[in-house]
Design brief:
Helices cover about 35% and strands about 35% of the residues. By secondary structure, the protein is an alpha+beta fold. It has four domains: about 70 residues; about 100 residues, conserved putative lor/sdh protein from methanococcus maripaludis s2 fold; about 120 residues; about 80 residues, Efflux pump adaptor protein, beta barrel domain (Elongation Factor Tu (Ef-tu), domain 3). Strands 2-9-12-11-10-13 form a six-stranded antiparallel β-barrel. Strands 15-14-18-1-19 form a five-stranded mixed beta sheet, with no helix packed on it. Strands 6-5-3-8 form a four-stranded antiparallel beta sheet, with no helix packed on it. Helix 3 packs antiparallel against helix 4.
């Protein structure tokens, strides 16, 4: 009963129903707001993205327009024809083409050495001599024996002539004549034997003298006077200076530039301003492990009887790699490998409207680090870009900030 009465009172209360309706409307509104919040958020994000995309597109268009209007600063080289000579500078040491170790063919005591190290010597001059006492005694002894044998042969010949006369008159029998003839022949054989022994002893005496077998320079001296030497001991080195070799070291990256027969200019400090001329006549096939260099020999003919280039001199050598007359040259850094195939075959050329164009070229010589020789693709007076920047492309405007010109 109490509940019914309470409900009846609320039903008749207008203020209650107004409040009830208000709360209901608020709940509906809250539900609607809750349902619309995700959609509003999505709409806001869509609007934001659209605005950002438009801004980005406008920015890209502006950048593209600015980029198309901007000129790429470049340095250029003016193509011209001129003589070109490519050389490779290397260092080396002078050596004799012939370096002969001189030895005595017989043992003995070194009595004298007549030259100093580095002295020039002529063929046939006496370089050194052993003690000749024993050899002279042997020669003298064999000379005495030979003289006695010659005297004995003369006596035997006279005896034979006498017995031949006796035999003709019948004073002696034939066996006696044959006996005397054999004595004469034996004396002749003995004399010839002693003559051979004398020649041998004289040869032994001559072997105690060391002669220069050719013109040259005395190199290293290995013994001193009064020393006992044997046929295996080197007395000194004789170096032929009519021709010399300069041994030069070629680093690995330059090995492919060197070839037999290439000319080379040689300079030494002893003769400033004078250049000697030679050719590469030998290239070692092995790269030395420590220095990582390959040895090449430059052969030079001395133009002075005494030999201006002496073994041991330090030499500066310029190997003539290539030589061209009136050739089209471009800096090596201006040639590009645009397709990255390892072949450098194009350059950028700037036209009269300052526009860059890719130009294919045919390279004739590319071993120089400074300039390459172009066979086809360029004309005199054209401007070639030196060290093209990455942003430089075909058809792009360029601003020439420097024009380099070759000399010579």
């Amino acid at each position: 009963m109490a509940f019914r009465e309470t409900f009846k009172k609320l039903r008749d209360n207008k203020r209650f129903w107004i409040l009830f309706r208000t709360v209901g409307i608020l709940c509906v509104l809250v539900a609607i707001v809750i349902a619309l919040v995700p959609r509003v958020k999505t709409w806001q994000e869509t609007v934001t993205k659209t605005r950002l995309g438009e801004q980005k597109k406008q920015q890209e268009e502006q950048e593209k327009k600015a980029k198309s209007e901007r000129k790429i600063p470049v340095r250029t080289y003016k193509v011209s024809r001129r003589d070109f000579k490519d050389t490779l500078a290397v260092l080396g040491v002078v050596h004799g083409v012939k370096e002969i170790d001189l030895k005595f063919p017989v043992p003995g005591v070194l009595q004298s050495f007549n030259f100093k190290e580095g002295e020039v010597i002529k063929k046939g001059e006496v370089i050194a001599m052993l003690d000749q006492k024993d050899a002279l005694l042997k020669v003298s002894y064999n000379e005495s024996r030979l003289k006695a044998a010659e005297t004995g042969l003369e006596a035997g010949q006279r005896k034979l002539e006498i017995h031949e006369d006796l035999y003709r008159i019948g004073a002696i029998i034939e066996p006696r004549l044959q006996e005397v003839r054999l004595e004469r022949d034996n004396a002749r054989y003995q004399m010839e034997t002693l003559r051979t022994e004398l020649d041998s002893s004289r040869s032994e005496l001559d072997k105690t003298i060391l002669y220069a077998p050719l013109d040259g320079v005395i190199g290293i001296k290995d013994v001193e006077t009064s020393e006992v030497v044997s046929p295996s001991d080197r007395i000194c080195t004789l170096i032929d200076i009519h021709e010399v070799h300069i041994d030069v070291g070629i680093i690995e990256r330059d090995i492919n530039k060197i070839a037999l027969g290439q000319g080379a200019g040689v300079n030494v400090d002893a003769y400033p301003g004078k250049e000697f001329w030679g050719v590469i006549d030998n290239i070692f096939p092995i790269v030395e492990g420590g220095s990582r260099t390959l040895t090449a020999k430059v052969r030079v003919t001395n133009d002075n009887p005494n030999g201006l280039l002496l073994p041991g001199m330090f030499a500066r050598v310029n190997v003539n790699l290539a030589e061209f007359e009136k050739a089209i040259l471009v800096p090596s850094v201006s040639v590009n490998d645009l397709d990255h195939d390892g072949v450098f075959e194009s350059v950028y050329v700037i036209d009269d409207q300052d526009v860059a164009h890719t130009r294919p070229v045919k390279i004739l010589y590319d071993k120089s680090t400074d300039y390459w020789v172009v066979q086809e693709g360029l004309q005199e007076g054209e401007l070639v870009v030196v060290e093209a920047p990455e942003e430089l492309k075909d058809g792009v405007k360029a601003q020439v900030i420097e024009v380099q010109e070759g000399t010579g």
